[in-house]
Every structure is written in C-alpha cells, then in structure tokens.
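User: I'm putting together a teaching handout on how multi-component assemblies are represented. Below are the sequence lines for each component of a complex, exactly as they appear in our records. Could you produce the 3D structure of the whole assembly as structure tokens, so the students can see both representations side by side? Please keep the chain order the same as the input.
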Amino acid sequence: MAYPLIKVTGDTSLAVIFGDEISNEMNEKVRSFDEILDNEKIPGVYETVPTYCQITIHYAPEIIRYNGLKERLEQLLMRSHHAASSGATVIEIPVIYGGEYGPDLDYVAEHNGLTKEEVIKLHSNPEYLIYMLGFTPGFPYLGGMDERIATPRLTSPREKIPAGSVGIAGKQTGVYPMDTPGGWQLIGRTPLTLYDPRNSNPILLDAGMHVRFVPVNQKEYDEILNQVEDGVYVPKVYQSGSKEEA
Amino acid sequence: MGFKVLKSGLLTTVQDAGRRGYQRYGMAVSGSVDVHSYIYANILVGNEPTEAVLEVTLMGPTIEFTSPSVIAITGGDLTPRINGEPAQMYKALRIAKGDVLSFGHIKSGCRADIAFAGGLDIDEIMGSRSTYIKAGLGGHHGRNLQDGDMVEFRRENVIPANIDIREMDPPIDWTGDYTVRVVLGPEEDRFTDAGIGTFLSSEYKVTNSFDRMGVRLEGDVIEHVNDANVISNGIPFGAIQVPDSGQPIIMLSDRQTVGGYTKIATIINVDMPMIAQCKAGDSVHFKAINIYEAQELFVRQKKYYFALRDSFDNYVGKLGSIPESPLIHNNNAVNAGKPAAVKAPENKPADSAGSIPAQQRDVKKTAQAGTFSATVNGKEYTISFN
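Assistant: Of course. Below is the structure of the complete assembly, with chains in the same order as your input.
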C-alpha cells in the first residue's frame, strides 16, 4: 500500500493515513501534517482528529466535496512531508507513588522481580510522548514505557478509578483525567487536574507534548493539591534537552 | 420563567449540534442523536436550526410550564399530551402558563425532540449546550433532568411569525424496519468479499444494547480477513464497527473519540435518523452507495432545511415550492416531510392582493457551493451554509 493514503470515512469525513505502526516517526508525520492543516484553514474543514498514524478530517460537503478536498490534501502532502517539528515540550506531572494512591505498586514490582523503588525510578525516568488523546476527555496515550515494568491488566476491572490515577496496562502507561471504571494497575496519583470543564482550556495535555512523571512525597502532594484547588498552580514545562529540573 | 420537571422520564437531556473541535482532546461530540428531527423542531418554532432542545427517550417526562411558550415535538411518536389531550407532532403549539406536557406509550420510534421558541437558558460549554453525562458536562448540571428541576427559557414570550401554518408531515414513518445507505470503508479491506456480501444482504436486529453511545446489532456473522484489531483511530458519527464477534455496532453521539475495531462502513447522514429511532427488535438492512451520491444527498438535505425555514418565515398566503427531501428515494420515506397542506389562516386570504403566485417565490435549485438562494416576494435571499 502506498502511503500516505486518503480514504473515505463517511459522507462528512475522510482519513489521511500515513502508515500502520505505532512509532515516534509515524506520529511525527501525523502531527506535522495536522499543524499544516491548522495553518492552511481549508474552507469547509471544521475539525481534525490526529491519532497514532492517521488524521480524521471532518468537513462540510456543502462547502467542499470529497474530490476537491482530496486534491487539496494531495498537494499539501506533496510539498510537506518533512516539515521540521519544533523541539519537544515536556510537561512535568508530579506523582505520589504507592500506598493508598497506588495500590498495585507492590504487585507491579513483584510481577517484574523489582523493588518498589526500582519501579518508581523506571517509571519516572522517561519523557513519554503523547501520541494522542482519547478514550475520555484528556486521556493521554503515552509511548515509551520501559518494558521492565510492563504488567498485564487486572483480571477484573475496578468500578471506579479516581481522577489523577497513574496506571500501567501491558506495555502502556497513562493517567486518568476523570473517575472512570478501568482495569489498569494503579501505581500512583497526580494532584494535577488533567480535565476541568469549567476552565477555558479544559484539557491540560496535547498530542505531541512529552510527559515526565516526577515523584513527590505526601507533603509536596498536599501542597500542590491545595494550589491546584485554589487555581494558582502552574505546571512545570521545559523544552526537551534543556535542564530537566527547575 | 420556563418549565418545571414533574416527572423526569427515562432519559431526558438537553442536546444541540454537539461539540465541534474537541475530539482531538478525547471529548465526545454528544448532541442530538436524531440529527434531523431536532432541526425540524427548531425550524417549526422559528429558532436557529441548531438551538438546544430536550431529547426524550422511550418514556417521556411530564413538565409543567411556568410561563407561556411555543413548542414543537418531532421524532418518534411517544404519544405527547398537553393537559391530557393528544398533542399534534411536527407542529408549532401554543402553550399557556400552567399547561402540562406529558407522554404516554411508545407508538413508534425511540426518541422525541422538544424545541422551545426562544431557546433554553443553559450555559454553553466548549461551544455547545449538549449534555455529556459520562463527563458530567453541559446541559442541565451535566446530567439528565430529574424530578423537580426548573429550566428557564433564554428569551421569553417568543412567538414565531406565521405560527398557524408552522406544521409539516412527519418525514419518515418509523416502521421499525429500515434500509439505511452506507459508504463502505475505511477498513473494508479487512473483511473478506463474503463478509462484505453478508453485511450488505443480511437483516440485522437491534439488541437490548442501544443508547446514546451506540447501537449493537445481531445477525449473520461478518467475516474478517484476519481479525478485528486496528491501531486506534478516529470514529465518525454513524461508523459501523465490527469486532471479532462479527456483529456490527453503530456509533452514535456519545461515542468515544477513538477506537481499535475495524470499521466496515459509515451510514450516510441523511439516513441516520432511522438508527436514532431504533429500539430492541427493530430490523436494519444496509445498502452501499458511493461518496458522490452520498454527498449529493447531504447537500440536498441542507437545501431542504433552508427552503422549509424560508417557507414558514416568509409565508405570504401560500406555501412555496420546496425542493424534494433526500428521503424521498428511500423506501421508508412516506411523504418527504413537505409542509402540511394547510388552509390559509382566515386573517390572511390566500389570494389577497399582497400574495404572490407560488412560481414567483420558487427556490433556485442551482445553489452555489456554500450558499443557498431563494426568491421570495421578488426579493432574493442568500443563506450561507454552516
């Protein structure tokens, strides 16, 4: 199959497909083309949804029809497949590991023949790429977890996972923006709010950003939580490759 | 003032066109499941077509009006009553303070939409008043209406022009046996030819699992080439996912934004109301058409709305010519939703000096992309889409 590929996904949307794999390189193509679409503002296109290796484009057929849009996209794809992406933005997510906040930390350690401290170290070391958001508002699909802490899902899902929970499912890690049922192994919790519908920017994270989990103790957790609740907490953000600790 | 909820009904929520532009953040679109009926209701009461309405499910609510209003009820026939007397659907109805709207048994369909002239006083969140219950967002406190709730009107005492002629025949007979048109893809190549053949020739029954998120169907197993897994990607409204079970699932307004099951086809927008009105035991057949035909129908539907709105708003004694609804070629369409043949109101004789022959207010069928023009009373109206 010759990529990129344009396919009909209904009478008001189509998909631009860049490949069929989960990789940083593939996702970079997706994000850079999504940026181009954002700048291009093609009349009739009203929403784009970037995912691992494709972009779903929603459009109004009364303004632009399938053939017209396809032609326009093909032109854009020809002149732009190597748009340099700007340096990665890393956002720090403070996490209190273990205890009541991470009831499955012991199991994850045991399953992988590690100590709890080793699990925390391996989990908080990488800068995880946010491939996309989905599942629930603000839920990040993260890539780059160390396979030494991979752990299968719970055999029976919990009915309610509290917002802010950080978990592991197979080779993936993620953080729950809102209370949801789920089968992930919970290893900790962040005091940050990833999803706040009352905020003008309701979603904290964005596809293409990187995330680093920073271990905090109970005192730090409480302090940050207070600041978050008072609406005065500013998440720490830096450019990848620059000094890591503020 | 507005109305008080005496009985909430099964699932009564505030809905409009839904949230645009937030799927990339994982936010469901939400919005009215019956994407056409709620627009008809708004047009009938003179609202903007995408104004927020109440979406009522199977068992309707009982509400008492605390101020006068004009409402219209469209969609499935859940036997609406006003003060105990049957209320006509697809018609602008005058409501007095103290009137009680209630619903009885289900005559046809699954959902009804109630539009209120002047709209509901509900805050917009992310550009929409739609309720998304799972995230506790939008609508009335992010939830379905409950007994005792008070909902206010945004503008009071709004009476649309030409109120007496604001009625139309229901566009579709909700028979419970539907043929819906689809465009194949995007993952049609993950199914065998036999699998596609099964999908397009079999009857599928609606299971007990049908809600605002999706409708699960049951019938002949649709055969995959290998398996049903894809790398998670976007899910449009009306997409038909087929998991390994081989049984199709149609995705609706509260669907999640991304999913990892193969999608065999997407139902065209024009035919989605039939799915919105499906309930357990109903039958669905699929018919494939190409994208060009599908978009022609889509644009025709949009033009139809504008012409309908225009014929009510600019009524001068006779109803003008309305382009055909795209549903006319569908086997479920009974009368294509033309305005009801009404008598001219007594205070406005049909052939008074001010009226004009129908042909003079004809609607141009050669609309330019993005706009639609109609001539009424010698005056040209251009309406932009979207």
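A couple of points students might notice: The longest helix of chain B spans residues 291-313. Chain B has four helices and 22 strands.
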